[in-house]
Design a protein that fits this description.
The protein is built from nine helices and no strands. By secondary structure, the chain is mainly alpha-helical.
Length: about 230
C-alpha cells in the first residue's frame, strides 16, 4: 500500500500521487489544526477551514516541490508554510471586508492556554508525535488481528497505551488467560514491532538517512524538551 523505500512519501506527494497526498495530510492535519488554534487563537471551525485550504494549496500550488531536506527538517518548514498561508488568508479577508466594519483575525503568538508551558511549536511537535504513534498503533492492531493473535495487541494496549494507572503483569495475565511469561513476551514483541512501524513511517517522510535519524530522535523527544 505504501510507496517503495526508493521513492519517499514526500516525493510521491510532490508528484501528486493521491495515496501519498492523503498519507501526508493524515499525519499532519491534526498537528496543523492544533497549531493554528495555539499560535493564532483561532476558533475550531476557522482552524478546520484553514487547514483544509492549506492542504489544498500544497497540491494546487505545488508547494511540496519547494521543500529542500538539506536546509532543515520537514516539520519546521511545514509550520512556516502554514504561518504564511494564514497571513495571506488573513490579509485577503481583511482586504475583502475593508470598509465594511469587519476586522481581520488578531495575531497573538502567546502559548496555548490549554497546554501550560508549551509553545505553539511544541504543541505542533506533540500532536505530530501523537498522530505518528496513533497510526502506528492502529497498524499494529490490524497486523495482530490478521495474524490471528489479537491478544498481543490487547496486552500491549492495556499496558503501554493505558491512560490511567498501568495494570500489573499478574493482572494482565489473569485478564487474558495467559502466563506472566507470555505477557512479558507479548509486550516485548509489540514494542519491537511498534518501533519498526514508526521507523518505517519516518523513513517514508524523509529523503536521506541523516534526516531519518534526526526525525527518529525528534519522535522520541518529549514536546517540552526543545524539540523542533
Amino acid at each position: 500500500m505504501f510507496p517503495s523505500t526508493r521513492q519517499t512519501l514526500l516525493r510521491d506527494a510532490t508528484a501528486g500521487t493521491p495515496f501519498a497526498l492523503d498519507a501526508v495530510a493524515g499525519m499532519y492535519w491534526q498537528p496543523c489544526f492544533r497549531y493554528l488554534i495555539a499560535r493564532w487563537r483561532l476558533p475550531r471551525d476557522q482552524a478546520e477551514d484553514l487547514v483544509q485550504g492549506f492542504f489544498a494549496a500544497l497540491v494546487e500550488q505545488e508547494l511540496l516541490a519547494r521543500y529542500d531536506s538539506s536546509r532543515g527538517p520537514f516539520r519546521p518548514w511545514l509550520r512556516a508554510c502554514l504561518d504564511g498561508f494564514f497571513r495571506k488568508d488573513n490579509e485577503r479577508v481583511a482586504a475583502a471586508k475593508r470598509g465594511g466594519g469587519a476586522v481581520s483575525v488578531p495575531i497573538d503568538s502567546s502559548p496555548d492556554l490549554a497546554s501550560p508551558g508549551l509553545t505553539p511549536e511544541q504543541i505542533f511537535h506533540r500532536e505530530w508525535q501523537r498522530e505518528m504513534f496513533a497510526q502506528a498503533a492502529a497498524e499494529l492492531q490490524t497486523q495482530c488481528e490478521a495474524d490471528g493473535r489479537p491478544e498481543r495487541f490487547q496486552v500491549f494496549a492495556a499496558y503501554d497505551l493505558a491512560e490511567d494507572a498501568r495494570p500489573s503483569y499478574d493482572d494482565l495475565a489473569q485478564a487474558h488467560g495467559l502466563s506472566v511469561t507470555t505477557v512479558t513476551n507479548h509486550l516485548a514483541w509489540a514494542r519491537r514491532e511498534m518501533r519498526k512501524l514508526l521507523e518505517a513511517r519516518v523513513g517514508r517522510l524523509t529523503g536521506t538517512d541523516r534526516e531519518r535519524q534526526r526525525e527518529l530522535r525528534s519522535l522520541f523527544t518529549p514536546a517540552g524538551s526543545g524539540a523542533r
